[in-house]
Automatic annotation (TrEMBL):
SUPFAM superfamilies per record: Clavaminate synthase-like
Name the record gives this protein: Alkylated DNA repair dioxygenase AlkB
GO molecular function: catalytic activity, acting on DNA; demethylase activity; dioxygenase activity; hydrolase activity; metal ion binding; oxidoreductase activity, acting on paired donors, with incorporation or reduction of molecular oxygen
InterPro entries from the UniProt entry: AlkB-like, AlkB-like_sf, ALKBH3, Oxoglu/Fe-dep_dioxygenase_dom
Domain (Fe2OG dioxygenase): residue spans on this chain: 104-201
Lineage: Bacteria, Pseudomonadati, Bacteroidota, Cytophagia, Cytophagales
Example GO biological process: DNA alkylation repair
Keywords: Dioxygenase, DNA damage, DNA repair, Iron, Magnesium, Metal-binding, Oxidoreductase
Recorded superkingdom: Bacteria
Pfam families in alphabetical order: 2OG-FeII_Oxy_2 (PF13532)
PROSITE patterns: FE2OG_OXY (PS51471)
Cofactor: Fe(2+)
């Protein structure tokens, strides 16, 4: 077996060009994953997300939360959020993910999808407050969900499954050339928690 095989495992790049997406698979075992899932559900300050689109206020069914090293302000969809201080479990997760990825992160955006009917539309995470081409590490707990990428120009699509306890890393120029989404599905009835560790500048 080739330990540095670039066609499989975490070294495989799922994107055919202009970006890097590595799927590490499950980096937490079943017991750890169940623990983090339950604990995050119960200890995170979940709130419905608010967005202003053409001045109209929208409230999502999905819940969100935002944590960081200090009280960073973070603006998207014309709404400004202020980061809360890390919880014990979030710091543990951050440390594990930093060791796995050999990257560092100073903030984390969390999403809670109550059922498969909640998802996230096509977008990229290249907001101005984020470090340019900084890696984004996405950790998933709970229901397995499909995740998709679409090239901005060619519309090429790449799909993968984000499993309970898994880690996905988006790096390099991914956010400039590719959109991503979490497609809604009627087939999933259980909740899912997703954490995206990021680097905020400023
Ligand atoms: O839930 C996911 O897997 C993706 C979340 C996402 O893309 C984001 O928070 O920017
Ligand atoms: Fe995203």
């Amino acid at each position: 077996m080739d330990l540095f095989d670039s066609t499989s495992g975490k070294n495989k790049n799922w994107l055919p060009k202009e970006g890097i997406v590595n799927y590490y698979g499950k980096v937490f075992n079943q017991k750890e994953s169940d623990f983090f899932f339950e604990t995050l559900l119960n200890t995170i300050e979940w709130k419905n997300d608010e967005a202003y689109i053409f001045g109209k206020k929208y409230v999502t069914k999905r819940k969100v939360a935002w944590y960081g090293d200090r009280d960073f302000e973070y603006t998207y969809s014309n709404a400004t959020k202020r980061a809360l201080p890390w919880t014990k479990e979030l710091l543990e997760l951050k440390q594990t993910i930093e060791e796995e990825t050999k990257e560092t992160f100073n903030s984390c955006l969390l999403n809670l999808y109550h059922t498969g009917e909640e998802g996230m539309a096509w977008h990229s995470d290249g907001e101005t407050d984020l470090k340019k081409n900084g890696a984004i590490a996405s950790v998933s707990f709970g229901a397995d969900r499909k995740f998709a990428f679409k090239h901005r120009e060619t519309k090429e699509k790449v799909e993968l499954l984000l499993e309970h306890g898994s880690l996905l890393v988006m790096a390099g120029t991914t956010q400039s050339h590719w959109l991503h989404r979490l497609p809604p599905t009627k087939l999933v009835r259980r909740p899912r928690v997703n954490l995206t560790f990021r680097t905020i500048i400023g």
